[in-house]
Amino acid sequence: MANTSDIRNGLCIRYNHDIYKIIEFLHVKPGKGPAFVRTKLKSVTTGKVIDNTFSAGHKIDDVRVETHKFQYLYAEGDTFHFMNTEDYNQITLQKSSLDAPGLLKEGEVVTVIINSEDQMPLSVEMPASVILEVTATEPGVKGNTATNATKPATVETGAEVMVPLFINEGDKIKVETEKGTYKERIKE
């Protein structure tokens, strides 16, 4: 058993007969009244995100987890196939357990969080950023780059990312996986 001082991003807890992963939290100590922790929880079974507030010192039931590196192989409908990089065992996960399935490129190595008790995969953590090639975008208009304007671009995985006007087809860009936003252009 843990309490609210142990709350951190990525912690898996049992709550309302389900297992949730904490994706965001904030310790709040108002001037008047008791302290509390505001959290955003994502269900590892359904992918649904809920907001919850725990009072300070509240006991939470944390789930013991292991992390393993898996390589993404391919997708088949809403099922994604991964291979353990150590023992080459393959697992399949549903699209709902992935944070950013649109940014997942074949061969990408991700961290899979597995419940220690029953060896069931709980969720997939993407790397902080991925490098993807732009496959389709409108050409930028010359002289229109002084503003902070953006345009939609389709990357090799099929996802759409808003990019600056100077990005062209064939450019490689770094995309932040947490927000799905453009970070920088990669020069080769």
Automatic annotation (TrEMBL):
Gene3D superfamilies: 2.30.30.30, Nucleic acid-binding proteins
Subcellular location: Cytoplasm
UniProt pathway: Protein biosynthesis; polypeptide chain elongation
One Pfam family this sequence matches: EFP_N
Domain Translation elongation factor P/YeiP central as annotated: residue spans: 67-122
Principal location class: cytoplasm
PROSITE patterns cross-referenced by the UniProt entry: EFP
Keywords, in A-Z order: Cytoplasm, Elongation factor, Protein biosynthesis
Listed GO MF terms: translation elongation factor activity
Residue intervals of the Elongation factor P C-terminal domain: 130-185
GO cellular component, as recorded: cytosol
Any single biological process term in GO: peptide biosynthetic process
Purpose of the protein: Involved in peptide bond synthesis. Stimulates efficient translation and peptide-bond synthesis on native or reconstituted 70S ribosomes in vitro. Probably functions indirectly by altering the affinity of the ribosome for aminoacyl-tRNA, thus increasing their reactivity as acceptors for peptidyl transferase.
Similarity field: Belongs to the elongation factor P family.
Protein name stated in the entry: Elongation factor P
Organism encoding this protein: Aquimarina atlantica
Name of encoding gene: efp
